[in-house]
Amino acid sequence: MEFEEYASARGQELVRLGFTISGDYQRAEDLAQIALMQAFRSWRKVQRADDPHTYVRRILVNSYLSMTRRRSFTEAPAADLDPDRTVPDPATDIVNSDDLWRALATLSARERVVLVLRYYQDLDDRTIADLLGIKPSSVRSVASRALASLRKARQSHRVDERLP
Questions:
Q1: How far apart are the C-alpha atoms of 76 and 124, rounded to whole Å?
Q2: What is the distance between the alpha carbons of residues 85 and 80, in angstroms, rounded to a whole number?
Q3: What are the residue boundaries of the RNA polymerase sigma-70 region domain, all occurrences included (predicted)?
């Protein structure tokens, strides 16, 4: 598969992943663009990977995590997001709950990424561990802590009942 075909076929999926992780449509577009730009620079290497899409998703996730480590990074509260700029996707009805976004915003970047990859992207622990460069047991630990935080938020703020 040539790069142009890949970008055309998977570009919007990368934007949706970026939006789900960051909660910001403009940041999601930036993350997808960064991931595609880096993939283009080393496309031969990406093509040789066992799963090129996993390789590009890892670039996107690592870019987001790197972005959150910068001092200038600030996350906009869900109330400040422009609802007309969301990515059209059937799953947005589930994850677009304002309370859920607020609860997710309280998590660390790593916790949020693990939950998004596990529940939105439906990836297994081993794949998530490979994407993040950690052990599968660490993925389970991070997910467990994140879910406990969300449950606590649900109890104290009556967050959406669809939380696992």
A1: 29
A2: 12
A3: 12-72
Domain boundaries, the chain: 3-157
Residue 17, classed as helix, strand or coil, is helix
Assess contact for 5 and 51: CB atoms under 8 A.
no
Residue 150 in tokens:
């969300």
Looking at the chain, how many residues does it have? 164
* pTM for the model: 0.58
Choose the CATH number for 3-157 among 3.90.1210.10, 1.20.140.160, 1.10.3720.10, 3.30.565.10.
Answer: 1.20.140.160
Number of C-alpha atoms within 13 angstroms, CB side, residue 14?
28
Question: Helices marked H in the chain — which ranges?
Answer: 3-22, 25-41, 43-48, 52-69, 92-95, 98-105, 109-115, 125-132, 136-157
pLDDT recorded at residue 103: 80
Tell me how many degrees the CA angle 29-125-9 measures, rounded to the nearest 5: 35
CB 55, CB 49: distance < 8 Å: yes
At 120, which amino acid appears? Y
Going by C-alpha positions, the residue among 29, 32, 25 that lies closest to residue 56 is 32
148: enclosing H helix or E strand = helix 136-157
Report the percentage of the chain scoring pLDDT > 70.
Answer: 76
